[in-house]
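Journal club side-thread
Mid-discussion, someone asked how the predicted structure for our own chain would compare to the paper's figures. Pasting it here so we can look after the session.
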Amino acid sequence: MEASGSVREYELDERIGLLDNSREDLVSGEVRLLKTTRSIWVSALFTSDVVNQCDRCLAPFSQSVHMDIEEEYFPALDPATGGRSQPENADDDTLYIDENQMLDLTPMVQEYASLDLPMKPLCKSDCAGLCPNCGVNLNDSVCQCDTALRDPRWGALLDMVGNSSQDG
């Protein structure tokens, strides 16, 4: 068993599914493990390029993800007794090293990646999206749809507004 204050550093290049699209993305970076008297402190800096889908035009696009992780992991088993470990102030968010002394960073990397990604991913800030009538990607071409088309649910109100402007 290593003494408190011991440090291990690793460079990692692993394929991990970061998005809910079942595609595994290459995650690269460095991780530093610091042994404390009661836990392992994990400091990691990872980057990845994920293929995301634009919310406006539905086109796939590449997006960089940066994960700066600082977390504390506790052993699931007490090394002295072999029984379940229960750290002070433990709650539902407490992270554990498994019973086989394996520290799996995958769930934490996925969580930090999801925090770095925007809630509404866009291929570019001025994405024009799809034509609501024909569905053509307006970033690639101009459609021939009648721009005067309107939502029929607003018809009566638009007719009233149109008549009042002609009266004045």
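Post-session note: The mean pLDDT is 86.
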